[in-house]
């Protein structure tokens, strides 16, 4: 269960910035699960006449390591826990100090990525069409691969919009000229290609099972990746965002101007 705490009553925290969600929440969840498991082991140890350190959970059974026949159903132990201790509640905690300790033990939690794309540029209009986009990511151990891929695809799609069309326009007095989605151009489905996501095993992070953050890194290389592809296509460096038809065509025309 996830409880949204009232910020007026809870301690101050820096938040989950820096893709710390899986590291903080994931580590706390893992520690809570370990705590609950250890409580069950202590209860089962009496029934199995063994040390809690010699027990394991497998096939919904708590059993003695190396002696599969000496076991008790996990459900039986959990039911008995209501009589013995009321209920099994695992507790886990992770804060900045705990994160620092994990990073000292395992190393940095920085993710790594490389993006590549193929674009088609119309030299007469400046229109850019992305034909293929590949995002390769090392985010340590992916706790939920489908969710990680979706996060990467969503982040890349957001940055494609920033690269190709999104722009806040101001007049000379600082007034926003496109304050609504009627005037502010968001990326549409025909601008977004199928984003091919590849997860590679790299250096483990300090998150649970070696996980690293994946929330922000996919946003970072997109603009440079598309700009480099445009340069490869037409030999022009577009240094003004967005990489809209107007800006791309202007860069192409300026390159064609004869030297004075």
Describe the structure.
The protein has 260 residues and is an alpha+beta fold. It has 2 domains: 21-94, Aldehyde Oxidoreductase, domain 4 (2-Layer Sandwich), CATH 3.30.365.10; 107-256, Aldehyde oxidase/xanthine dehydrogenase, molybdopterin binding domain (Aldehyde Oxidoreductase, domain 4). The protein is built from 6 helices and 6 strands, in the order αβββααββαβαα. It has helices spanning 21-48, 74-84, 96-106, 145-164, 222-234, 245-256, and strands spanning 55-58, 61-64, 67-73, 112-121, 128-138, 195-199. It has a 3-stranded antiparallel sheet. Strands 4-5-6 form a 3-stranded mixed sheet. Helix 4 links the parallel strand 5 and strand 6. Helix 4 crosses helix 5 (222-234). The longest helix is centred in the N-terminal third of the chain and has 28 residues, at 21-48. The N and C termini lie far apart (70 Å). The mean pLDDT is 88.
**Distance between the amino and carboxyl termini:** 70 Å
Overall domain count? 2
Low-confidence stretches: none
Average residue pLDDT: 88
Features:
Aldehyde Oxidoreductase, domain 4, elongated, 6 strands, 2 domains, three-stranded antiparallel beta sheet, 6 helices, single chain, 260 residues, three-stranded mixed beta sheet, alpha+beta
């Amino acid at each position: 269960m996830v409880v949204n705490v009232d910020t007026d009553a809870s301690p101050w925290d820096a938040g989950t910035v820096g893709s710390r969600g899986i590291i903080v929440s994931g580590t706390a969840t893992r520690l809570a699960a370990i705590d609950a498991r250890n409580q069950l082991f202590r209860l089962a140890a009496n029934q199995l006449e063994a040390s809690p350190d010699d027990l394991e959970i497998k096939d919904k059974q708590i059993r003695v390591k190396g002696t599969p026949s000496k076991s008790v159903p996990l459900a039986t132990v959990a039911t008995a826990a209501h009589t013995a201790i009321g209920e099994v509640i695992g507790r886990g905690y992770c804060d900045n100090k705990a994160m620092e300790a994990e990073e000292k033990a395992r190393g940095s939690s920085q993710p790594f990525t490389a993006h590549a794309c193929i674009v088609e540029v119309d030299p007469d209009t400046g229109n850019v069409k992305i034909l293929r986009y590949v995002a390769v990511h090392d985010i340590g151990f992916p706790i939920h691969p489908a969710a990680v891929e979706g996060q990467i695809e969503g982040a890349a799609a957001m940055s494609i919009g920033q690269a190709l069309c999104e722009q806040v326009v101001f007049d000379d007095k600082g007034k926003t000229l496109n304050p609504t989605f009627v005037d502010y151009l968001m990326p549409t489905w025909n601008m977004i290609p199928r984003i091919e996501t590849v997860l590679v095993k790299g250096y483990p992070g300090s998150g649970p099972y070696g996980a690293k953050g994946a929330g922000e890194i996919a946003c970072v290389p997109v603009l440079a990746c598309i700009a480099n592809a445009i340069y490869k296509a037409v030999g022009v460096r577009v240094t003004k965002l967005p990489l809209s038809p107007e800006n791309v065509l202007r860069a192409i025309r300026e390159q064609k101007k004869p030297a004075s």
